[in-house]
Automatic annotation (TrEMBL):
The keyword Ribonucleoprotein does not apply. The chain crosses the membrane at residues 700-720. Keywords: Membrane, Transmembrane, Transmembrane helix. This is Membrane protein. It comes from the Bacteria. Residues 755-779 have a biased composition (Basic and acidic residues). Pfam families: DUF6049 (PF19516). Residues 43-82, 492-522, 731-806 are annotated as: Disordered. It comes from Streptomyces griseorubens. Coiled coil: none annotated. PROSITE patterns: TONB_DEPENDENT_REC_1. Residues 43-55 have a biased composition (Low complexity).
Length: 806
C-alpha cells in the first residue's frame, strides 16, 4: 500500500544508505519488576508481581525436567516425567537414583513464585519419595556427562488429596568417593496442578495473541506506476517463511481460542511483498535489488486470513506507537497526537482490506501494560476507551484475598483491562531449552488453578504476553493455552467479553502516579527530539504536498513512515530509531529538492528594458503546480521588475521537465543590481532555496539620450542645408547656361570681326568659348571647383552600389 513520489536522474536515496549502515541492536527491554505477594489472607495477597529471575542449581548434579505429561492430570491418568541429569562435580557419582517426590500443597500464588525462584535448591523442602519402583537408577554418573531419565507414575500413586497445586520434585540421590553415603545431590522443583473434577465456577480466560513485528518498510518507493516499495532489509521474509517466528505464530494460533492483536503495519508490509518490492543491494553502487519472496508473502497472508476467520481481531494503531513515550515526551510537541489519530484511523481500513474481517480499534496497549495518568490520557485521545494494563500497575484492592476480575472503570468512560501479571510474564526468557519451556507451562497452569480456587466469584482473566514472542516462546504459549483449554477450572473468552464483564466493586481503580512508572521502562522511551524531528518532517511534507498534482504518491508513504517512527519496537534500539527517522526526513528533503530553480550567472542589460528568464526544473515523475515564482530587485531605483520592486508569476511544470519564466525589467541607471528569485507556495510560504544573481546595467540614461538625439538632429539639419545649397547652385548654373544660349542665338550671322571692331575691349577681355578653360574635360577637378551638373534627384530607392548624396 505504500506509495511515494520519486524522481528521475538522481543518485540512490541517502535514507537507504543510512539504513544500510545501522549499528548493532542494543540490549532488549528488561522485565518489569514487581513486589512479592504475601500469603493469602493479607491485603497484599492478590498482588501480581512479574516473573522472578531464573533459579540457579546449587547441587553437584543438575536435574532438568524436559517434559511433564499431562500437565494437569486427572484421575486415571499416568504422569510421565522425563529429562536429564548431569554431573557437574569433579567426582563420579555412584549408586545414583532418580525419583519423584510430592511436596506440600501450594495454596497461594506467591508460594508458587518462591518455588519457581528456588527450583534447583537442594536445601528446599521436598516430600517423601514415591515408591521405589518408580525410580531410575544409574550405577555411575561421570563428571560432565548427561544421562536421560524417564519416570511414569499413575496419578493414583501420587497420593494427591486436596485439589490444588503441588510441589512435584525430581531428585537425584547418590554418593561420591569423598562422601560415601546416600545424599541428595540434585533437585528440580516443578508444579503439578490437581483438579480432577470440574469447578462449579470456572475462570474465564482471554489470551491475547499478538502479531507484531519491527519496522521493515522505508518511505521510499520506485518511480514506476505501481510505486515499488523499498524495504530496508529482508528480515520480514525470514519471519514469515516456514519455521519463522510469524509463521509459527499463525500456525499455532489458528487452533487456539485466542484474541488476535495485530499491528496493521505488519499486514501492510507483507502485502507490499506480494508483488514487486526492493531491498538495498550488497554492492558498492547502492542499487536496489528485487526481493524474491512474493509467494511466501501470499501464502502467509492466506494463512492469516484462515486463522482469524470467526475469531476476534483487535487492531492496534498503525505502527504500534509507543504510547508512554508519546505521553511523556511527545505531547509538548505540536502535532504529535495528530499522528496517533491518523494511525488509529487507518488501522481498521488496513486490517479489513487485507484480512476481510472488521477489527476492533477500542483498545490501547502501552508497553508492558505500565501506565500513569498521562499515558491513560494519550491512550484514549484517539478514540480508544479501553486500556490494557498489567496487574502490577494496579493494586488488587483493599482487603482483597483474591485476584479481582479484569475490567476496572477508571473514570471518563475509560476501562482499564487489567491483564494478570504472573500469567502474562511467565513466557518471558529463553524458551529454546525444553526444561525452561516445560517449567513455564507448568507454572502457568499452576498460577491459573490457584487463581481459580481463590474464590467462588465469577471472574474474567486477561493474559497479555510479550509483544513479539519468539518461535520458541510461541510454541510454549500454545502448549500452555492448549492445556488450559482442556482443564477443568478455566474456559476461554475473547477480550471484548472480558472487558465488558461486571467489574469487582472492591477492586482498585486508582491510576498510579507518574512517579510510580518503572524507571527501567522510562530509560528506553523515545526522547523529545524524536518527536521534534517527526514534527519537522511533517511540516516539510505539508508544504511539499500542496504543489503536487498527485498528493497520494507522497502523503501515504510518508504518513505511514512517520507512524513507524513512533513504534514501540524502537525501545532498546535508540541508534537504529534515530537512523530511521533521519532517513525519512533526508529522503523527503531529496524529493523536495527535485523541484528547484536553476542557478544563473551574471546577466547584462544593454537597453532601457529587457526580459530576464528564470528556469524552474522538475525532476519528479509527477507534475507540480500551485507554485509562484517571485523575482525581486534589491535595488529598484536602478532596476525595476515590471515597474515594481518585484513581480510574481504562477508556475506549473510537468514531471521530468523544465520551464523558463520571463520577467520584464526596466533600467533607470547604469551599474550592478542584485536580483533574487524564489519559489513560493500559494499560501506564501517559501519553497526551496532562492537563487541570487547580478544584473549589470549598461543602458543609456535619459540625459545622454537627449544629447545624442540633439547631435543627430544637428547632423540631419546640416545635411539638409548642404543639400538645399547644392540644389540652388545647380539651378543658378542652369539659368546661366540658358542665358548664354539665348545670347548666342541673338548674335547669330554677325561678323565676328565687326563685333570685335565695335567692341574691341570685349573681344580682348572676354575669352571665347573655345579658349575658355575646360572644367568638364580631363583636367583634374579641384575642391574649390563648382559642382558638376546633375539630373533632378529621384525619390526611388537607390540602386545597388549607387552613391546617394544627402
Amino acid at each position: 500500500m505504500a506509495e511515494a513520489a520519486d524522481f528521475q536522474g538522481t543518485s540512490p536515496s541517502p535514507a537507504r544508505r543510512w539504513l544500510r549502515r545501522t549499528g548493532a541492536v542494543l540490549a532488549g527491554t528488561p522485565l518489569l519488576a514487581g513486589l512479592l505477594q504475601l500469603p493469602a489472607g493479607s491485603p497484599a495477597a492478590a498482588a501480581t508481581p512479574a516473573a522472578p529471575p531464573a533459579a540457579s542449581d546449587n547441587g553437584s548434579v543438575a536435574v532438568s525436567v524436559d517434559s511433564l505429561t499431562p500437565g494437569a492430570p486427572t484421575e486415571g491418568d499416568t504422569v510421565t516425567v522425563s529429562g536429564t541429569v548431569t554431573n557437574k562435580g569433579k567426582k563420579a557419582v555412584t549408586d545414583a537414583s532418580v525419583g519423584l517426590r510430592v511436596g506440600s500443597l501450594l495454596d497461594t500464588r506467591s508460594s508458587i513464585d518462591r518455588v519457581a525462584k528456588n527450583s534447583g535448591d537442594v536445601d528446599s523442602p521436598v516430600g517423601a519419595e514415591i515408591d521405589d519402583k518408580y525410580t531410575e537408577k544409574f550405577s555411575k554418573l561421570t563428571p560432565g556427562v548427561s544421562q536421560p531419565y524417564t519416570i511414569s507414575v499413575p496419578a493414583d500413586e501420587l497420593d494427591l488429596g486436596q485439589d490444588g497445586v503441588y510441589d512435584l520434585s525430581v531428585t537425584l540421590t547418590g554418593e561420591t568417593s569423598d562422601q560415601p553415603w546416600e545424599q541428595t545431590l540434585g533437585v528440580r522443583h516443578t508444579f503439578l496442578p490437581w483438579q480432577p473434577d470440574e469447578l462449579d465456577t470456572k475462570t474465564k480466560t482471554a489470551f491475547m495473541w499478538p502479531l507484531v513485528s519491527t519496522v521493515h518498510m522505508t518511505a521510499e518507493t520506485g518511480s514506476d506506476e505501481e510505486q515499488t516499495p523499498v524495504f530496508h532489509d529482508d528480515e520480514l521474509a525470514a519471519e514469515i517463511s516456514p519455521g519463522g517466528r510469524l509463521d509459527r505464530m499463525v500456525a499455532l494460533g489458528k487452533d487456539l481460542d485466542v484474541t488476535w492483536v495485530i499491528d496493521p503495519d505488519l499486514l501492510a508490509s507483507v502485502e507490499a511483498m506480494t508483488t514487486r518490492y526492493e531491498i538495498p543491494g550488497e554492492t558498492t553502487d547502492d542499487q536496489n535489488v528485487v526481493g524474491g519472496h512474493q509467494e511466501v508473502a501470499k501464502r502467509w497472508l492466506t494463512e492469516v486470513q484462515k486463522a482469524v476467520a470467526d475469531k476476534e481481531v483487535v487492531a492496534l494503531p498503525f505502527g504500534d506507537p509507543d504510547l508512554a513515550s508519546l505521553a511523556h515526551h511527545g505531547t509538548s510537541v505540536t502535532g504529535s497526537l495528530r499522528h496517533l489519530k491518523e494511525a488509529t484511523d487507518v488501522a481498521a481500513r488496513t486490517v479489513e482490506s487485507i484480512l476481510h474481517v472488521a477489527p476492533s480499534t477500542d483498545y490501547a496497549w502501552p508497553v508492558e501494560g505500565a501506565v500513569d495518568p498521562s499515558i491513560i490520557k494519550v491512550s484514549t485521545s484517539a478514540g480508544a476507551d479501553k486500556v490494557i494494563v498489567r496487574g502490577d500497575t494496579f493494586e488488587g484492592g483493599r482487603d482483597l484475598t483474591y485476584t479481582p476480575t479484569a475490567p476496572r472503570p477508571i473514570g471518563g468512560g475509560t476501562t482499564a483491562v487489567v491483564a494478570d501479571a504472573r500469567l502474562s510474564t511467565v513466557f518471558d526468557g529463553d524458551m529454546t531449552r525444553a526444561s525452561a519451556s516445560t517449567q513455564a507451562v507448568q507454572r502457568f497452569l499452576a498460577q491459573s488453578l490457584t487463581l481459580a480456587l481463590q474464590t467462588d466469584r465469577p471472574r474474567s482473566v486477561v493474559v497479555a504476553p510479550q509483544r513479539t514472542p519468539s518461535a520458541a516462546q510461541a510454541q510454549t504459549m500454545a502448549e500452555a493455552i492448549g492445556a488450559l483449554q482442556d482443564s477443568t477450572w478455566s474456559q476461554s473468552q475473547d477480550l471484548t467479553a472480558a472487558a465488558k464483564s461486571k467489574p469487582d466493586p472492591a477492586a482498585g481503580t486508582e491510576v498510579p502516579p507518574a512517579s510510580a512508572y518503572p524507571k527501567s521502562l522510562r530509560k528506553q522511551e523515545l526522547p523529545r527530539s524524536a518527536f521534534e524531528q517527526i514534527a519537522r518532517t511533517q511540516d516539510k511534507l505539508d508544504r511539499f504536498k500542496v504543489v503536487l498534482s498527485d498528493q497520494s504518491r507522497v502523503v501515504t508513504p510518508f504518513g505511514r513512515a512517520l507512524n513507524r517512527g513512533m513504534a514501540a519496537s524502537w525501545r532498546g534500539r535508540p541508534a537504529e530509531a534515530a537512523i530511521y527517522r533521519s532517513g525519512v526526513e533526508t529522503y523527503l528533503d531529496t524529493l523536495i529538492g527535485q523541484v528547484r530553480l536553476i542557478e544563473k550567472s551574471e546577466t547584462k542589460l544593454s537597453g532601457r528594458s529587457a526580459t530576464i528568464p528564470v528556469t524552474v526544473q522538475n525532476n519528479l515523475v509527477q507534475g507540480v503546480e500551485h507554485l509562484v515564482l517571485r523575482l525581486t530587485s534589491t535595488n529598484p531605483t536602478r532596476l525595476e521588475i515590471d515597474g515594481n520592486a518585484y513581480e510574481e508569476q504562477p508556475v506549473a511544470v510537468s514531471g521530468g521537465h523544465s520551464q523558463s519564466v520571463k520577467f520584464t525589467t526596466n533600467a533607470n541607471a547604469n551599474g550592478r543590481a542584485t536580483v533574487v528569485a524564489q519559489l513560493y507556495t500559494q499560501d506564501g510560504r517559501p519553497y526551496g532555496q532562492p537563487v541570487t544573481f547580478d544584473v549589470k546595467v549598461t543602458e543609456i540614461t535619459a540625459t545622454v539620450m537627449l544629447v545624442i538625439g540633439g547631435g543627430v538632429l544637428l547632423l540631419v539639419l546640416a545635411g539638409f542645408r548642404m543639400y538645399t545649397q547644392r540644389k540652388r547652385a545647380a539651378a543658378r548654373q542652369a539659368e546661366e547656361r540658358e542665358q548664354d544660349d539665348a545670347a548666342d542665338e541673338a548674335g547669330a550671322g554677325t561678323d565676328a570681326d565687326s563685333d570685335g571692331a565695335k567692341n574691341p575691349e570685349a573681344s580682348e577681355e572676354r575669352p571665347t568659348e573655345e579658349s575658355a578653360p575646360d572644367t568638364r574635360g580631363d583636367a583634374p577637378e579641384q575642391p574649390s571647383d563648382p559642382a558638376p551638373d546633375t539630373a533632378p534627384e529621384s525619390a526611388d530607392p537607390s540602386g545597388t552600389g549607387e552613391r546617394v548624396d544627402r
